[in-house]
Design brief:
This protein is mainly β and 321 residues long. The protein has a single domain (2-319), classed as Porin (Beta Barrel), CATH 2.40.160. Helices cover 7% and strands 50% of the residues. The chain has helices at residues 2-20, 38-41, and strands spanning 52-61, 69-80, 85-96, 100-114, 120-134, 153-166, 170-177, 196-203, 220-231, 234-245, 248-257, 260-271, 275-284, 295-304. It has a 14-stranded antiparallel beta barrel. The longest helix has 19 residues, at 2-20. It starts with a helix and ends in a 17-residue tail after the last strand.
């Protein structure tokens, strides 16, 4: 299989570069629907909406076939009165062409503090297990009788932290992932995954209601979003917005490295009080962006409404989470 041989040669080159040049560093996986996977963005989001929620994300890049590069993420979180904060659990599996397979599971805690009547701040901490495997059987060696290396995996613990501040109309925060700098290289102990720093901001724009009638002909909103991330030598920024009319929403973002454009992201979805579903399409600006070779992502979230907190809910869902 030609494409597997090519992928194998690329992987071997990367491994050799890790052994020769320390500046060759890996990066985290990317989710285009960042608003639908808040724990992945910042652990301080755990329990922020005061309800419990279950989130599922699937991301697929069908090159050179439909099963070659995919990412699956699932998370659950909720607010717990006894600990004055939120608890969460997140699992993620990043499958890279049958050659590399990265898996992680993380437990999250977020302490909630009310600053003023309208403003809140959360302090989040995350701890988990990180592992990645390589399938030597997918590679073609120059010597067919050569025995594959015995080392085929790395595993370690990993940590992250974050801060989130918000009211019913606006939110912002910062997060730092990979505080323990997990080892990435198979044969060089000093090659580690660089820390990832995230800064994010969003706002909710809604029409003013008629206080007497408290009704509108139809509901609608507009929510601008900005995310900046730095990891190793990469500096990436997402900016754009999503909007909704009644239960239908759509959005567009522009993602770029600070040195060159990367992609446009288009989203359509359906949102209800108890669940939402979304589909996004990444249109690459690299010149190789037809429909059969671009990135597709699906998200689904289910909310377990806490009726006792319906009136005091902070409604982070209103600004996209």
């Amino acid at each position: 299989m030609l494409h597997m041989r090519i992928s194998g040669y690329i992987l071997i080159c990367c491994l050799l570069m890790k052994a020769i040049k320390p500046v060759c560093m890996a990066q985290d996986a990317i989710l285009s629907q960042f608003y639908s996977s808040p724990l992945f963005l910042n652990p301080a989001f755990a329990g922020a909406d005061l309800d419990s929620r279950l989130v599922f994300n699937y991301r697929n890049q069908p090159f050179p076939d439909a099963s070659n590069f995919s990412l699956i993420s699932a998370a659950v979180d909720g607010f717990v009165d006894d600990i004055s904060g939120g608890l969460g659990l997140m699992v993620m599996s990043d499958y890279q062409g049958g050659l590399l397979w990265k898996n992680q599971i993380n437990a999250v805690y977020s302490y909630h503090l009310q600053l003023t009547r309208n403003w809140h701040i959360n302090f989040g901490a995350q701890a988990g297990y990180y592992r990645w495997d390589i399938n030597w059987g997918k590679l073609d060696f120059a010597n067919p009788t050569q025995t594959p290396p015995e080392i085929n995996r790395r595993n370690t613990i990993d940590f992250a932290s974050g801060i989130l501040f918000y009211n019913e109309k606006m939110y912002g925060g910062i997060a730092a992932h990979h505080l323990s700098r997990p080892k990435e290289a198979l044969f060089i102990d000093d090659q580690r995954l660089p820390m990832k720093y995230t800064a994010h901001w969003g706002i909710m724009i809604e029409p003013r209601r008629n206080r007497r009638a408290n009704t509108l002909l139809f509901e609608y909103f507009l929510s601008p979003q900005v995310i900046y991330q730095h990891q190793g030598r990469q500096n990436r920024i997402n900016y754009g917005f999503y909007a909704g009319v009644e239960q239908v929403m759509a959005g567009v973002w522009y993602r770029q490295d600070l040195n060159h454009p990367n992609a446009f992201i288009f989203l359509v979805g359906l949102t209800r009080e108890r669940y939402s579903i979304g589909y996004s399409f990444d249109y690459s600006l690299s010149g190789y962006s037809d429909i059969s070779h671009s990135i597709h992502e699906i998200s689904f979230s289910f909310n377990i409404i806490n009726e006792n907190r319906r009136m005091e809910r902070k409604v982070l869902r209103g600004v996209g989470f």
